[in-house]
Amino acid sequence: MNLSGKRIGGLLAAAGVIVVLIVATLALRSHPSSSPSTGAATSHPAATATPNGTPPPMTTRAPGVPDRAYQTLREIDAGRWPGSADAPGTKGGDQWMNRGGDLPRTDPAGKKITYREWDVNPKKPGQSRDAERIITGSDSSAYYTGDHYGTFTRMR
Predict the structure, then answer these.
(1) Fewest C-beta in 10 Å: which of 4, 47, 80, 92?
(2) What's the confidence (pLDDT) of residue 56?
(3) pTM of the model
């Protein structure tokens, strides 16, 4: 078979593209929550760590906050939510703007608090996401809302 330099170069370029596609596919398979085609948010650890890097302890439970919300908060603190829900469409880690000012805008030192929102429950196939959310703050706070931001209960 008689191959010209251009033909060899073209074959090498095509092989390179194939290798890149294989590597990209393998990388996406090892991180399913980051796949843009699923519509699921990527998992961002909540900004809830204490100065030594551990989440603040939850010593008491707030009345009216279901156990499931505390289980989800533990997953958030560990950086595993929403991926550990193993349910496509479960959201978590997106910025929550606090537009209505329902939660504190600054910490006691005057530093701006930023918030992220998380689904409490895994999304069920064929159904819309439910109303339960957890809001985590950059000041280590966490709030539960069972009525889609109508009311908030401080979890910590």
Answers:
(1) 4
(2) 62
(3) 0.65
